[in-house]
Amino acid sequence: MRKVVTAPASVLSRPAAEVDPADPEIVRLAEDLVAVMRASPGCVGLAAPQVGVSARVFCVDVTGHPKAATTHGTFVLCNATILEAGRWRPGREGCMSVPDLTGDVKRAARIVVEGLRPGTGEKITITTDAFEARAVQHEIDHCAGKLFLDRVAGAHAVYQRKIYL
Amino acid sequence: MHELAITVIGPDRTGIVADVSEALAAVGANLTDSTMTRLRGHFAMTLICTGPAEAEAVQALRRVGGVLATVRPVEPETGTAAAGEPYQLSVHGADRLGIVAAVARVVAAVGANITDLTTRLSGPLYVLVAEVDVPAGAGDELAERLAVAAAELDVDVTLRRAESEIL
To answer: In whole angstroms, what is the distance from residue B145 CA to residue B153 CA?
Structure first.
């Protein structure tokens, strides 16, 4: 199982490279990302830089999450870009790569995103909203070398993450 | 390694943060957690530093003009903070004596812990915003008690869960 890297790690801070979705290495990376996501309690998305690989690949699965509306199950996208974004909403988010902090971040509650499916390289367009949209934006940010810390809403918008019993 | 609790306050001006933090860096003081903000024209800095002995930090801050500084050695944080459910508390209404005292007492009475608090007085309007760690399951009770206190103070109180989603 690949290990999740935490900030400060340079791989989290640099824009990741475009990938060839048909490359067997990328297909294996995609499978590994899903495996790490499933093995991590509460994890709803994971981007390649978070496992130390500077590549524009991420997976998301928000199935069953109380804040999700539209859901597309488990999916992996390569070289994803946001085509449309709207209905900006604040929300507090954390990240497996920044384990001790959370922050208030504005995200679009409705997005259209385009990317390539690993393996076939088929171009897919996903229209989504609410929590799935937030998760996708968070992962696309990872692929661009951005953390939620780069987007927090102000000097008082970073919080020590609470330890739940 | 010494751990120091430092407060610095002075009339706000361009460069006050640079001057204070440079003076501390020059004696090897490493800023860990800090909060710095402008309060009615005064710039207030509260910080925890590691590194130099108390006397060195005092000397360094003495060289920064026009600020009032205090330095005291503290013990490093031990263990983890009590776990609770995070809530955001907002209070606003006509300014009067004792709003913070009354609200904070209600929070303490249910065993909840204020982890961050800001107040602003803007003309006649008083605003309090706080982050509160509430013992599991005590949120409803706190909300009820706050409503009673708010009626007595004639202010509006909102307590809402500050849920964070780990992505």
So the answer is: 12
Number of domains in chain A: 1
Q: What CATH number is given to the structural domain containing A56?
A: 3.90.45.10
From chain B, the residues in CB contact with A92 under 8 A are 162-165
Domain count of the fold of chain B: 2
Q: Do A44 and B133 touch (CB under 8 A)?
A: no
Per the structure, the complete domain to which residue A65 belongs is given by: 10-160
A37 in a structural domain: yes
Supply the range of the domain harboring residue B112: 85-161
pLDDT in tens, B97-119: 999 999 999 999 999 999 999 99
Assess contact for B129 and B137: CB atoms under 8 A. Answer: no
Q: Which residues of B touch A155 (CB under 8 A)?
A: 37
Q: Does residue A139 carry a catalytic annotation?
A: yes
The arithmetic mean of pLDDT across residues A89-113, rounded, is: 95
Both B90 and B69 in a single domain?
A: no
What are the tens digits of pLDDT across the range A118-162? 999 999 999 999 999 999 999 999 999 999 999 999 888 998 886
- The model carries a pTM of 0.85
Which among A93, A155, A165 has the least Cβ separation from residue B165? Answer: A93
Nearest chain B residue (CA) to A47: B167
Q: Which of A111, A108, A112, A105 lies closest to A87 in space, CA to CA?
A: A108
